[in-house]
Automatic annotation (TrEMBL):
Record's protein name: carbonic anhydrase
Organism of provenance: Chelonobacter oris
Keywords of the record: Lyase, Metal-binding, Zinc
InterPro entries xrefs: Alpha_CA_prokaryot-like (IPR041891), CA_dom (IPR001148), CA_dom_sf (IPR036398), Carbonic_anhydrase_a-class (IPR023561)
Lineage: Bacteria, Pseudomonadati, Pseudomonadota, Gammaproteobacteria, Pasteurellales
Coiled coil stretches, renumbered: none
Keyword Metal-binding: yes
Length: 246
């Protein structure tokens, strides 16, 4: 059970002080993404895997799948800076996502600045990852891109407190993550991996095509809170099939 929890909450678990169980990794220097596969045996797939993420996605994918079903409600969240990202964890959980007949529950969502996936070779300044699991531990991640534009009022609750590394706070206002999804549900889906060690493969990725907007000040504040650029470089798509849905 502990292993499954650490797989889902990879960023939080990897920052625990017990180094023998959670080898240290980062985005810079000798512990940067280019070296992740060499840092520990459990990270080997970061360097040798064939279903790694993130990737560049073409919006011209032709295979069509069924509609995406999700439902979220306002929830209380814990905001944490774990040294790799800013992560928000719901204090109560329920089924939120139906994917290919399976029920998934939101476990956490976190921030990457700049974004990790690219759409038609375009990178965005920020990407949110909404990490879900089913009852068997299978992972599904919804990715939402943010472009520079108008201020996004739904991001303000995330930015009210500038948490430092190792700090966590309970937010005073509820968040409905559906407010952080685009109204247009057209998306690209494929099999991939976690974008941080241990880079576990078999993750169901759902990448929303329509980016949301955030002001330059909001994007800068989020990057400042994280304290570093926390995006993994693009990986090879190989012969994976990318499916388009709505």
């Amino acid at each position: 059970m502990a292993t499954a929890i650490c797989t889902v909450f990879l960023s939080a678990c990897s920052h625990q002080p017990s180094a023998e169980h959670h080898p240290h990794w980062s985005y810079q220097g000798e512990e940067s993404p280019a070296h992740w596969g060499e840092l520990a045996q459990e990270f080997a797939v970061c360097g040798s895997g064939h279903l790694q993420s993130p990737v560049d996605l073409s919006t011209k994918a032709k295979v069509v799948k069924a509609h995406l079903h999700y439902q979220y409600s306002p929830m209380d969240y814990i905001l944490e800076n774990n040294g790799h990202t800013v992560q928000l964890t719901p204090q109560t959980k329920s089924v939120n996502l139906i994917l290919e007949g399976k029920e998934y529950t939101l476990q956490q969502f976190h921030v990457h600045t700049p974004g990790e996936h690219t759409l038609n070779s375009k990178q965005f300044p920020m990407e949110l990852h909404f990490v879900h699991t089913d009852s068997h531990g299978e992972i599904a991640v919804i990715a939402v891109m943010f472009a520079v534009g108008k201020e996004n009022s739904h991001l303000n609750n995330l930015l009210k407190k500038q948490v430092k590394v190792g700090e966590k706070v309970a937010l005073t206002e509820k968040i409905n993550v559906q407010d952080l999804f685009p109204k247009n549900t057209q998306h690209l889906s494929l099999k991939g991996s976690l974008t941080t060690p241990p880079c576990t493969e078999g993750v169901n990725w759902i990448v929303m095509e329509q980016p949301l907007q955030a002001s330059y000040a909001q994007l800068t504040a989020m990057e400042k809170m994280i304290g570093l650029k926390n995006n993994r470089p693009l990986q090879s798509l190989g012969d994976r099939i990318v499916v388009i849905g709505n």
